[in-house]
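Interim report, section 4.2 (structural modelling).
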Amino acid sequence: MAPLKSRGEGSIEAFISGAQKESVTRIAESFARLRRERRRGFIPFITAGDPDIGTTGELIVELARAGATCIELGVPFSDPVADGPVIQRASERALAQGVGVDEVLQAVARARKETDLPIVLFSYYNPLLQYGLERLAQDARAAGIDGVLVTDLVPEEAAEWIEVLHAHELDSIFLAAPTSTDERLRLIAAKTSGFIYAVSRTGVTGERAEVSAQAARLVARLRRLTDLPIAVGFGISRAEHVAEVWQYADAAVVGSSVVAEIARLTGAPDLVRRVGAFARSLLPTSELPR
Amino acid sequence: MIKGSVQPDVRGHWGRYGGRFVPETLMAPLEELTQAYDRARRDPSFQREFESLLRDYSGRPTPLFYAARLTEYVGGARIYLKREDLSHTGSHKINNAIGQALLARRMGKRRIIAETGAGQHGVATATVCALFGFACVIYMGAEDMRRQALNVFRMRLLGAEVREVDLGSRTLKEAINEALRDWVTNVEDTYYLLGSALGPHPYPLIVREFQSIIGREARAQILEREGRLPDCLIACVGGGSNSIGLFHPFLNDERVRMVGVEAGGRGDELGQHAARFNAKGGGRPGVLQGTMSYVLQDERGQIASTHSISAGLDYPAIGPEHAYLHDAGRVEYVSASDAEALEAFQLLSKLEGILPALESAHAIAHALKLAREMGRDRIIIVNLSGRGDKDVHTVAHELGQKIA
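Predicted structure of the assembly:
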C-alpha cells in the first residue's frame, strides 16, 4: 500500500514506483494526518551536537512539543558545501566536540523514549558511507530514525542506498531544485518516499528576507508530477515565510534561523525552553487560507 | 592492463570512482556543461580555436628538454623535462583555462569563478578572463594567500577579484567549497572553471582532455628525439591534472611505466601530508566535493587537514581517474617529503638553471631516486608542471633566509 492515497488519476509514480514502500512509515502517516485535517506542517532543522549532544536530545523532545510535524537532524560534516555560514559554524562546533554518526544515533534513541515525532537524518554522504550503508540503516532504524536525506547524493548515484534504506523501512528523501528539469523531477519523485524536499532557491542554506518566487513555481511543477507531500526549505526563516509557503506546500522547513537562535542562546540555562518558544513563534497564527 | 577502459562511463565513472555527488541544484548545470563539451569536442572549429590559442597565446608546444647535467649528476637514466613551466602564466594550468574559457563563451556565460591553491590556476583563469573580457572571481584560502602573495597580486593586476576564504584549514579544499557555494547560488550566469581533474563529472574528463596536449606533445617529441618511447613518466599529483595530462596519451603503451608523486609533507601521520594513497596515513575511498575517490579522512568520514610545503599539492582528495589507475595497478603512486622537494628545488636550480615550482620539485625528487636505479640507456620524462618564482619566498623562509 502506498503511503498516501493518490489524488489524481494516472499518477506517474504509481507506475514507476519501485521506490514506494509497502508499509506506512511514521513520516507518511504524519503527512497523511495533516492532509486529512487540512493542516500544514512545520519542520525545524537542528545540527546534532550543537551546543552539545545532550541538549540535542532535549531539543528534539521540546520541538515535538512546540508543534513540529517532523524534525530534520543534521549530521555534522567538515565540508558542508550546501550550507551557508550559520549551519557551517554549528557543524564546526559539533565536530569540535567529536560528534559523529554514533553520537547522533544515541541522542535519537534517547529522545525516542519521549516522543513519536518523525525524525529525518540530514547528512552529507561521506560520514554515512564510512559508517557503512547497511550498518547505518540498521542502526538508524533501531535508534528510531524514520528517513534519511543526503544533501550531496542524487538518485542516479543512490541505487544501492535506496535499496538498503527501504529494506529497513526507512524513507529515502531527495531534494528537488528550481534548476531540476521535469525529467529529473520525475526521477526524484520516483525515488523518494515520505516527502520531497523542495529547495526554495538556487543557493546555500541561510536566512533570507523573502521567500524566493522560485519556490512556488517548483512546487507547482512537482504537483503535476507527483502526489507525494512536498516540504519547502532554504531561506525560510520567519513566521511570515512559513505562512507564505503553507499556501502551496505541505510543510515548511526552517533551519538556519533555529540554528542561529540556538547559537545565540548557548550558555543560557533555559536554552531548550527558549528554543521551543522561538519555534512556536515561527508558526503562523492565522488559519490556513483554504 | 586497462586497455579500452580509459574512458569513463556516461555518468563519469571510472570503475567505482568519479560520478556526481552534488546538491540537486548543480545537476542541471553539470548536464548542460556535459552537453556543451560534447558538442565542442566534435566541432572542428572549437578544436582549431583551442589549438591556435595554445600556440599563439600560450606558446605551445612547450619544449622537451634533455637535462644533461642533472642526468650526469645522478649517473643513471636519461632525464628529460617537459617544460610546462615555459607556458604563458608559468604552468600547465593555462591549457585547461583556455579550453574551459572557450567552452564558457560558447555557453554564453560571462561570469567565471574558480578556486586556487598555489595561485597558478587562479592566475591562469584571471588571464583568460582578461583575454575574453569575462568577470572573474577567484576563491583562495587565507593561508594560501599568505604563502602565495605574489600570485594574489598577479591575479588582481589581471583584473580578477580575489576572495579570501577564512574557514577550516584555509587552503584549497575550503576554496573549492566556497566556489561550489557561489556556483550553486549563481548557476544561471556563472561558469565554474575548475582547475584540476577533480570534482563532479564532467570536470575530471574535460580537464584531462584539455591537459592531454602535454602527453601528446611529449610522445611525439621523444619519438623524434630518441626514436622510441620513454621507459618512465613521472609527475607530481595534487588533484592530478598535470599528471593525467602527461600520462593519458601513454596509457595504452604497456611498456611505459608511470609514477605519480604525492606530497609526503612532514610524515605519515594524518594531517602531516597529502598522500591520498597512503592507507596508513588515512587515505581511503570516500566522497568529497562531488566525486568518489581516495580521500584523506578520519575513521568517521570527516575530511582531514593536510600539509605540504607546496600549496598546489595540499589537498585531501585526488582525481577519480587516478584512483582507478591506482587500483588497476597501471600507475604507481609514491610520495616525496617537503625536505626532498626542497632539495630537488635547489638542485635543479643549480644544475640546470631552472627554478621549478615546489609542486614539480616533488616529481624531480622522485626522478632522482628512480634514475639512479635505472640503466644509462633508459629514458625518464618528468613533467615540469610549473616554474618556481612564486615559491621563492617559501624557499627562503625554509632555508632560514630573509628576503625583502
